[in-house]
Design brief:
The protein has 159 residues and is α+β, with helices and mostly antiparallel strands. Helix content is 27%, strand content 25%. Strands 1, 2, 3, 4 and 5 form a 5-stranded antiparallel β-sheet that branches.
């Protein structure tokens, strides 16, 4: 009888460990419907109208880039391993200075580029403190105790 319970327990343990390693597909983002995209008119539609038709973009262009970006990614993930990109698309809608639709670009997974991070770093100004100073300053910085923070009062001006 004990052996039967041991086999059942072992089976359940192996099954639960197996389930934890199941591969999953993770979908991030959403591309606008193709029918709506064909309705867009280059040189006529304004940015506000395009946003109403397509919904909120994944992000807006920065640093003078007057564009809207819609990003869609499908990744395959197995347990703790690095996810593998199965599909990746970026829809870029470029606008002129007067917010009129100028161009539509669709980038695929094949357009992705690997960017190597720089090993250089920028020093920041400020005081360098040791680990011990950090620990002590956090203990002292309790609200209501000296210079550590504001004293929470009753809300009256005299507090």
């Amino acid at each position: 009888m004990k052996f039967k319970h041991l086999k059942l327990t072992l089976f359940c343990l192996i099954l639960s460990l197996n389930i934890s390693c199941v591969n999953t597909k993770v979908v991030n983002g959403q591309l606008p419907d193709a029918n709506i995209l064909t309705a867009l008119q280059i040189g006529k539609d304004k940015k506000g109208l395009v946003k109403k038709m397509l919904g909120s973009p994944s992000f807006n262009g920065n640093l003078g880039d007057n564009s809207l970006y819609y990003v869609f990614t499908v990744k395959k993930k197995i347990a703790f391993l690095e996810p593998k990109i199965l599909d990746h698309k970026v829809l870029q809608l470029k606008f002129s200075k007067d917010d009129t639709l100028k161009n539509i670009n669709l980038y695929q997974k094949s357009d992705l580029e690997e960017v190597e991070m720089s090993k250089n770093f920028t020093l920041t100004s400020g005081k360098k403190i040791t680990l011990l100073e950090q620990l002590i300053s956090n203990v002292i910085a309790v609200p209501g105790m000296g210079r550590g923070g504001p004293i929470i009062g009753s809300g009256r001006a005299s507090d």
